[in-house]
Amino acid sequence: MNTNRRSFIKKTLGASALMAVGSSTVSMASTKSDKGASSNGVVVGKSPKKEVLYKQTAEWEAFYKASY
């Protein structure tokens, strides 16, 4: 009975190890891209629009004065 349990555990651990290696290989292959190294994870597009991060308004001024 102990040999049956041991053989079952060996087979299960071997299969789970193979699944872990296979899934990590697939995930690494799917995340690689040719633009990844130069863009540092940032999506680079061809839009002519300028990105506006801050627009000076009365509400923002009140917020900044309150935060100091």
Automatic annotation (TrEMBL):
The keyword NADP does not apply. Coiled coil: none annotated. Residues 1-29 form the signal peptide. It comes from the Bacteria. InterPro entries: TAT_signal, TAT_signal_bac_arc. The keyword Signal applies. Keywords: Molybdenum, Signal. NCBIfam families: TAT_signal_seq. This is Tat pathway signal protein. It comes from Halarcobacter anaerophilus.
